[in-house]
Design goal:
There is one protein chain. This protein has 352 residues and is α/β, with parallel strands linked by helices. It has a single domain, classed as Alpha-Beta Barrel (TIM Barrel). Helices cover 47% and strands 12% of the residues. Helix 9 crosses helix 10 and helix 14 crosses helix 15. The longest helix has 25 residues. It is globular, with a radius of gyration of 19 Å. The mean pLDDT is 96. Bound molecules: coproporphyrinogen III (CP3). The site of coproporphyrinogen III (CP3) has 24 residues, from strand 3.
Length: 352
């Protein structure tokens, strides 16, 4: 597919076009730091309602679009949203994150998983993505996202978030065959789900392997990387033109390995200097990031300096400006606004 100048900025950057300024969006740009979101949360206290009732999810997804006009609008959802379609019941608890009703720890539970039929179990995703595309037109890019097999397995085996990942690591290091079967099933389901999101209107897909940074590099190569590859390969088979982004939290020790996943764009968090990341990944690899979300607690001068520093180090082209992870809940909204305004005034064409 050719690059068209009527395409939105983020999509053009993701396809490798060199632009006057890097496109900018934020992870968790819809969420608790916004008063509009907190007000809506009072009306819809259940996370699943907020993300699965189409009108509500559309409204939340568009709250940051209306307030800041980011170059990327991400679907409001969660990485665990597709799990009930596999037969894994879940909820997303306030202040805690995903909770799995019956954690998967036996071969029989793995055998009982159903293949994902997104048209049946995730019909709301179609309504949400179609509406988002219609709403933003070609002024912004609509991003879909999925959780990667290792990170989803971590939630499903542990039953909730964890600091140590003891239960899944116990399984990985004592019963790897069963875990590999589970990861394989998750990879196929996630690829199916990502393809469905693209068919429904998502223009870019971000794969979140948030907890793969908890693995040593050799275990990353065994339990995370092969399944990231499997997801990306399956998406590419049917949707070769959709740019694919990979995120791993705390990824400083893994960057070169992440580049082997088949992603077009690697998210760089703030544990790596952007110039070092560029040197390590090579100029052909596109990057996203990499400001510390905590920078948004600083003064406007501080925020501006950090934006310019990142943009200078990322160099011309192949960069999507973003935080290295999600906006923190107590971030002042006016600082998010300032971040977007400042980023949109950058002009690389006239920069020295
Ligand atoms: O970025 C966006 O604006 C899109 C929406 C989005 C959410 N979750 C909404 C959400 C995205 C992309 C996610 C991905 C997600 N969910 C990840 C990968 C990204 C990352 O953080 O590394 C992970 C690990 C999860 C699991 C999860 N869901 C966690 C850890 C939490 C936070 C727990 C807490 O309360 O601090 C959630 C809940 C969640 N998902 C919230 C949001 C806005 C906060 C709770 C709420 O709004 O009520």
């Amino acid at each position: 597919m050719g690059v068209s100048s009527s395409d939105p900025l983020l999509l053009r950057a993701a396809r490798g076009e060199v632009l006057d300024r890097p496109p900018v969006w934020m992870m968790r740009q819809a969420g608790r730091y916004m008063k509009a979101y907190r007000d809506l949360r009072e009306k819809y206290p259940s996370f699943r309602d907020r993300s699965e009732i189409p009108e509500v999810a559309i409204e939340v997804s568009l709250q940051p679009w209306k307030a800041f006009q980011p170059d990327g609008v991400i679907l409001f959802s969660d990485i665990v949203t597709p799990l009930p379609g596999l037969g894994i019941e879940m909820d997303v608890a306030e202040g805690k994150g995903p909770i799995i009703a019956s954690p998967i720890r036996t071969q029989q539970q793995v055998d009982n998983l159903r293949p994902l039929e997104p048209e049946e179990s995730l019909p709301f995703i179609k309504t949400i993505l179609q509406s988002l595309r219609q709403e933003v037109g070609n002024k912004s890019t609509v991003l879909g996202f999925v959780g990667a097999p290792w990170t989803l397995a971590a939630y499903v085996v542990e039953g909730k978030g964890s600091k140590t990942y003891s239960i899944i690591k116990n399984m990985a290091f004592t019963d790897p065959t069963m875990l590999h079967q589970f990861l394989g099933k998750l990879a196929d389901a996630i690829a199916t789900y990502a393809r469905y999101q693209i068919d429904c209107g998502a223009q870019v897909i971000q794969l979140f392997d948030s907890w793969a940074g908890q693995l040593s590099p050799q275990d990353y190569e065994t339990f995370a990387l092969p399944y990231q590859k499997r997801v990306f390969q399956q998406i590419r088979q049917t949707h070769p033109d959709t740019p694919l982004i990979l995120l791993v939290s705390g990824s400083a020790g893994l960057l070169e390995r992440m580049a082997k996943s088949g992603a077009d764009i690697i998210t760089v968090d703030w544990t790596v200097d952007m110039a070092d990341a560029r040197a390590r990944l090579g100029t052909h690899m596109k990057v996203q990031g990499n400001l510390d979300p905590g920078v948004l607690f600083g003064s406007q001068e501080f925020i501006r300096d950090r934006i310019y520093d990142t943009v200078r180090k990322a160099g011309h082209g192949g960069h999507i400006l973003n935080l290295g992870h999600g906006v923190l809940p107590s971030t002042p909204e006016e600082n998010v606004k300032f971040f977007f305004e400042t980023a949109k005034q950058i002009s690389l064409a006239t920069a020295a």
